[in-house]
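Supplementary Text 2. Reproducibility record for the structural model of the 219-residue chain.

All settings were left at their defaults, and a single model was retained for analysis rather than an ensemble. We include the record here because the model underlies the residue-level annotations in Supplementary Table 4.
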Amino acid sequence: MELRLVVAPVFGTNCCVVSSGADCVVVDAGAGVADAVGQLIDDAGLTPRAVLATHGHADHTWDAGALCARYGIPMRLHEADAYRLADPFGTLSPALETALGLHRDDYRAPAVVEPFGTPGGSAVLTFGEVTLRALHAPGHTEGSTLYHLDEEVILTGDVLFAGSIGRTDLHGGSGQVMAETLRDVVGALDPALAVVPGHGPATTVAYELETNPFLAGGV
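Retained model, structure tokens:
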């Protein structure tokens, strides 16, 4: 599989176009990426099959509706976070809503949303030639999900960053649940995996297990 990265102008969300053969999916369509992602897809001659989200916060889903409409594809995310798409600001603090610099009237919800569950904590999702393994990783939100692309890369959304982890003080977050996720889900990942987080630079599982203050010695 091949991964192409587009960084959103709002909050620097890492939007990933994941492709295999001519098929692709878009993961975390943050605010302001639709045109650049569409141009990338069209220039590469790819066929989008779905827009996915690592979780339902607005900075990871804002442009999903536009891309879904452009290509006639569904939005896919964990069923525990699907409710957030109807009101992207409904579960955010007023201060964060202001910080995002977005306006409710500009939001376009995806027309077709197909939530998925993760029985036993994981599920295999197939979109044409693209196959991902979704790992339920709650704590930042109830439906936070890691996407294991292949034997080399994992997308961690706002669960794990280079040197840090996602906040747990917003609606649906839980410090205790996050600690369990870091121990049981992140701690069980192959150390050789490259990590592409929801924001900021890439890292590796091994490096984070050794140096991240929220993980080192704790898993």
